[in-house]
Amino acid sequence: MREMYQLYHEDCIEGCKKRLADGSVDLIITDPPYGIKGHSLHKHYHRKEEFVLDGYIEIPRKEYAEFSRRWIEQAARILRPGGSIYVVSGYTNLLDILSALRDANLREMNHLIWKYNFGVYTKNKYVSSHYHILFYVKPGATPTFNTYCRYGAHERAEDGRAANYADREDVWIINREYKPGRAKNKNELPRELLKKLIQYSSQEGDRVCDLFLGSFSTAKVAVGLNRRAIGFEKSERAYEHQIREMEKVKPGELLPTLRTPVHKTLSNQGKAWSEAERKELLEKYKALLPTCKTKKKTIQQLSEEFGRGYFSILNVLDRSL
């Protein structure tokens, strides 16, 4: 199992220089220190931290811009052309990270919002209950993005919406995980969040890197999804505890937990519309609409009948109505 991961008790900037060649990593998912005195936040927000591992290493605010520039410079170097990076950040020092990503010549793909449960309670301002996830790629090759790895193109959610479309919207509601009575790190990304990122932006056997391992969650999920993990953790206490926990992770153990997308081939998908088909579609749409009541439900029914995708039918109707 050890061949599936290389995890080091080192500073990530010096560790990258020493251990990782240019273009040697397929995907980076990382949650750097936030530069907001994270080692003492529990005093202000009444967090119970008796099971939180000591040794959280914070970055002083005055050093944060330079710190961000240096580690992101290394991240861009080790990432292969077409490789992806996801950076999880709060809002306080977000500008520093955005500037560093821009200066590293990485291309922005999405600015995702992760909405979680139970934000930090405040009385005199709005409750903070989200993080930013910055999705960038390294230019030079086609990025890996597995569009239909979780939902097929024609699957529907319980509310009738296109499930694939909903899953790829840029606001995600994923709850934090709670581990009462168990040793843990101060901030841990939930497994469902990591599974989603790794599914969309990598293949089995790819090399997934986390420059700030913390709880080793990225590494654990990567190996559990049959990817190779590499990363760095500076805190001795966190490293010693989590490296033992890694020995319990079996390669591929999370693969059975993934849902299998339902792929459906439409008989006329991709074919050009004839004038006769356009006319027939318009007539049937007008006849069905009073029964189906909404445009969306009407198009869904017509999709089955005409063997066409939802947006193909929508485009024809928008031009005709």
Report on this structure.
Helix 6 crosses helix 7 (217-224). Residues 39-47 have low confidence and may be disordered. 36% of the residues lie in helices and 18% in strands. The longest helix has 18 residues, at 275-292. The protein has helices at 12-19, 41-45, 64-78, 94-103, 163-167, 191-201, 217-224, 236-246, 275-292, 295-306, 310-320; strands at 5-8, 25-30, 79-89, 107-120, 128-137, 171-173, 207-210, 228-232. The chain is α/β, with parallel strands linked by helices.
What descriptive keywords fit this protein?
321 residues, elongated, Rossmann fold
Topology:
Blueprint: E1 5-8, H1 12-19, E2 25-30, H2 41-45, H3 64-78, E3 79-89, H4 94-103, E4 107-120, E5 128-137, H5 163-167, E6 171-173, H6 191-201, E7 207-210, H7 217-224, E8 228-232, H8 236-246, H9 275-292, H10 295-306, H11 310-320
Parallel strand pairs: 1-8, 2-3, 2-7, 4-6, 7-8
Antiparallel strand pairs: 3-5, 4-5
Helix pairs in contact: 1-3, 3-4, 6-7, 9-10
